[in-house]
């Protein structure tokens, strides 16, 4: 049986001397593990379409529960990422998050769109990396089902509290902390609250279309990073590498 999909390559794993296994994020079929025969041979016709962070059309042959690439044609390379190691490292972080959040045989249209739009933003748009990163992380958390409560302080209804409870996913005032509660809370500014509300509720195609000052973006990016990692209960090696490059700069 043949299956045609359009998918983003999230991961490339060496299989043997000549072949590789790709993790591909598709819209209708979720995450697929596919074998790329001869990919590691010189001048392989699959080489272009099977690179990490390439969006391609694949014609797959399914046999005994395993997909093998019959043909592959690249649709988008995101060339700008490959010329900038910092952007490339951030893009691979997005791919690792998408890998964790996606499942086989589960439609992932919203997650695929977010990841592709984030890579496009890194490649083409003049937007601070911290803004792209924060928007991706918070929107990804929402897609995964971790939609934060952002209407106001959960206790006193103050519309712009000064804390965000990362563990519980809710806004709180500093004075409203429950006695004996030890969960992690992080500072947040009114501008940061507005940005979070926008990211969670806007049309997916406009997730980066908000304005915030540099200091607000730095706080927002840190908050969204910690929130996603806390809810997923795991860290990301690609994020560690991205941050190490930033420190080097």
What does this structure look like?
This protein has about 250 residues and is an alpha+beta fold. The protein has two domains: about 1-75, Nucleic acid-binding proteins (OB fold (Dihydrolipoamide Acetyltransferase, E2P), Beta Barrel); about 80-249, Recombination protein O, C-terminal domain (de novo design (two linked rop proteins)). It has seven helices and eight strands. It has helices at about 80, 85-100, 110-125, 130-145, 190-200, 215-230, 235-249; strands at about 1-15, 20-25, 30-35, 55-65, 65-75, 165, 170, 185. The strands form two sheets. It has a five-stranded mixed beta barrel with strand order 1-2-3-5-4. It has a three-stranded antiparallel β-sheet with strand order 7-6-8, with no helix packed on it. Strand 1 (about 1-15) and strand 2 form a beta hairpin. Helix 2 (about 85-100) runs parallel beside helix 4. The longest helix has 19 residues, at about 215-230. About 40% of the residues are buried.
């Amino acid at each position: 049986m043949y299956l045609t999909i359009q998918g983003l390559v999230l991961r490339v794993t060496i299989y043997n001397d000549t072949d590789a296994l790709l993790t591909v994020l598709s819209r209708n079929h979720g995450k697929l593990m596919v074998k790329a025969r001869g990919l590691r041979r010189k001048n392989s016709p699959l080489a272009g379409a099977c690179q990490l962070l390439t969006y391609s059309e694949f014609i797959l042959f399914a046999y005994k529960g395993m997909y093998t690439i019959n043909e592959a044609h690249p649709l988008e390379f995101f060339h700008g990422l490959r010329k900038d190691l910092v952007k490339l490292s951030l893009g691979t972080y997005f791919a690792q998050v998408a890998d964790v959040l996606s499942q086989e045989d589960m439609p992932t249209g919203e997650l695929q769109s977010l990841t592709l739009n984030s890579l496009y933003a890194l490649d083409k748009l003049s937007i601070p990396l911290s803004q792209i990163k924060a928007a991706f992380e918070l929107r990804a958390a929402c897609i995964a089902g971790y939609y934060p409560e952002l209407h106001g302080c959960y206790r006193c209804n103050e519309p712009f509290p000064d804390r965000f409870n990362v563990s519980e996913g809710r806004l709180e005032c500093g004075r409203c902390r429950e006695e004996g509660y030890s969960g992690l809370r992080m500072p947040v500014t009114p501008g940061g609250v507005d940005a979070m509300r926008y990211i969670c509720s806007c049309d997916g195609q406009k997730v980066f279309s908000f304005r915030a000052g540099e200091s607000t973006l730095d706080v927002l990016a840190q908050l969204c990073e910690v929130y996603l990692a806390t809810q997923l209960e795991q860290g990301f090696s690609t994020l560690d590498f991205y941050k190490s490059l930033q420190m080097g700069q």
